[in-house]
Design goal:
Elements (H helix, E strand, L loop, with lengths): L2 E4 L5 H10 L3 E5 L10 H14 L2 E6 L6 H7 L5 E4 L5 H10 L5 E7 L16 E6 L32 E2 L8 H8 L3 E4 L4 E3 L2 E2 L1 H13 L2
Parallel strand pairs: 1-2, 1-8, 2-3, 3-4, 4-5, 5-6, 6-7, 7-8
Antiparallel strand pairs: 9-10
């Protein structure tokens, strides 16, 4: 069955709501240019609450976050770190060596088939998340609610990773089609289930999760 990640959570109540609706993973964003940014203390609290409820907590970050290593070291409940910036393969490898017990998910912006070739350079990544490329001049790599041609991912694998996460522009109305076209084993949503930036809508969250699970 398709796994669902609800990302950009900023309140414990939203973590509880998402997990109750069937979310498999939740994401907290520690990129300070994001409207969904949470600081060290809140990130830790959200991660621990998600773990208590049985969901896998992901941290969405870039290598520029000065306290990322500390957060990982002091929060063993973290299930994965999603590096969603302009990290080089060497930076991803160095991070992975420092935190060998935490899976590293490399997020990549995709616009056309040739963009997928870059994934082969990230041998240290444990898995990948494919998002739409950000608009020109954007201050962050992800979280823009844009989509791309999902069909270019059909059958894609790299370094024996058959499962990867699809993100970007997903909603309850299109997630089943996105899964069908791409073959994704996991999907990630943030703005597509919000009533306003950083505020998750319980009805939209439940509808998205139901549609994703039904679209498997």
């Amino acid at each position: 069955m398709v796994s669902v990640k609800i990302c950009g959570l900023t309140r414990e109540a939203d973590v509880e709501m998402a997990v109750a609706a069937g979310a498999d993973m939740i994401g907290v964003v520690v990129v300070d240019t994001s409207p969904r940014f949470v600081d060290f203390d809140l990130a830790q609290a959200l991660i621990r609450r998600a773990a208590e409820l049985g969901a896998e907590p992901w941290v969405v970050a870039t290598m520029a976050v000065p306290w990322l290593d500390r957060l990982v070291d002091e929060t063993p409940e973290i299930g994965a770190v999603q590096l969603h910036g302009k990290e080089t393969p060497g930076q991803v490898a160095a991070f992975s060596r420092r935190h060998q017990l935490v899976p590293v998910i490399k997020a990549m912006g995709i616009e056309r088939p040739r963009d997928l070739a870059e994934a082969a350079d990230f041998e240290a990544a444990d898995a990948f998340l494919f998002d739409a490329k950000p608009p020109k001049g954007a201050l962050r790599e992800g979280g823009h609610g844009r989509s791309f041609d999902w069909s270019i991912l059909k059958g894609f694998r790299v370094h024996d990773h058959e499962d990867w996460t699809l993100s970007g522009g997903l909603t309850a109305d299109n997630v089943a089609e996105a899964i069908r076209l791409s073959g994704a084993g996991a999907v990630d949503v943030s703005s597509g289930v919000e009533s306003s930036p950083s505020v998750k809508d319980a009805v939209k969250v439940a509808a998205f999760i139901a549609a994703a699970k039904a679209g498997d």
